TrEMBL record:
Organism name: Nitrosomonas communis
Domain called DUF3492: residue spans: 14-293
The name this protein goes by in its record: Glycosyltransferase involved in cell wall bisynthesis
Keyword Transferase among UniProt keywords: yes
Lineage: superkingdom: Bacteria
Amino acid sequence: MAEKKLKQQKQKHADITLLLEGTYPFIRGGVSGWVHQLIEGLPQYTFALVFLGSKEKDYTDPKYAVPNNVVHLECHYLWDPFSFSKPKACDGNSEYIQNSSKLHDWFRNPCTSFDEALVSKILVSLGQPSGFTVEEFFYSVASWEQICKQYYKNNADNSFIDYIWAIKSMHAPLFRIANIAHQFALSTGTFHTVSTGFAGLLGVLLHYLTNRPLILTEHGIYTKERKIDLQSLFIKEHRDLLSDAYHMGMQYQELLWLRYFESLGRLIYKASNPIISLYEKNRERQITDGADRDRTKVIPNGMEIERFLTLRAQRPEKIPLVIGLLGRIVPIKDIKTFIRGMRTVVTQLPEAEGWLIGPDDEDKEYAQECRDLVLELELEKNVHFLGFQKISDILPRLGLLVLSSISEAFPLVLLEAYASGLPVVTTDVGCCREIIEGSSDEDRALGCAGIVVPIANPEAIAEAVITLLTDENRWHSAQRAGIQRVESYYTQSRMLDGYKTIYDQALIQ
């Protein structure tokens, strides 16, 4: 394992410690690809990686060969069971609970003043004998009384059993994160978290414990993504129920979880500087969610254009009737809408093929549902599941790239498509419209590099695909716009220069 190999180097210092939740180096694509690009592109710095996962069994071998400037990797799993001694009642630290109640009051009303000294004291003593241990949380009289008090004050109309298990589940990973922070022995110049959530909270604790700067980059807005996850879970669990209440919104425990992640996000914004997003719309969302405007900035993703010039040269003169979707076979990518769109496409273009290119082992049940849908729509001769493929082998063989996602931030795959000379069709999510149509007057003057469609609309996807594949002039116009846009605004050097400036400033503090 890469983890063991790196630990054997016994490094004592890293310039930058990246805090990663469920991504690099164990998951391919998306944020993981960006992390790998960042590390490789800035070889003058040394990096340490702290990976937070769900359960150890959920992750196998690393999917990336980590670069030589990664000097440390440690992995922690937040949802593996705690090892307790035999439960034993205790009084608990009432003073700590009283102080933490003030923090919870700020979570409920973030317009009130933020007492950073108190928050620092609460967080750095979490899980410690001087503060509040995990045994005290689960077994103390003080903890039980506080949970009951908050239930009767704020939640008495809802199930107490659901409430108490939600509270226990929310707090359990916090103690594990606190333990990780206190055991972190590597000196570092700065911490850089690539999300809010649990990785971001670890960054806050390490920031307060070491007094080193904390940098935050949000590719997507974490709370928005967790809301989508919770809604998907809710729909899946209750789709057979007919009550209007179930169809109108999430259950109370899902709302508790959403408020929990929103509160963590505000806490992380308070400790981070700078707070980086990939595009302006997400920067404004960060500010709305509690980020200090003066700390926010935008650094778009970038591509190493030169790597794709050979792919561009391999593109056939005749436009292939092959529509590719590069991404994981998971619900958030809305693969089913792509498949349903292909049903309409093949009625007008019988030779057209749809290629689903990406791993299908993350949500095996959903992947099987997608395969079943292909059979149901009699598309087995047209739609193919190719699994993970080298992008260099795939892009020259496609006539269009399609993204049918219900949520994205700044998909690198669009830039890769442009650099290889491929137009795109994508849903109107994240930064996709900006990438296709342009973000400024000068950018928009380059033209559209594809077509933007509404989410969950297979007919709109089909219409856009058919339009581009049957209109060579429009296809070539979109191709030219994409190439010019990526070469003008989304180069890797621009992105890396932005982070080099930030790292240099952090390292002299």
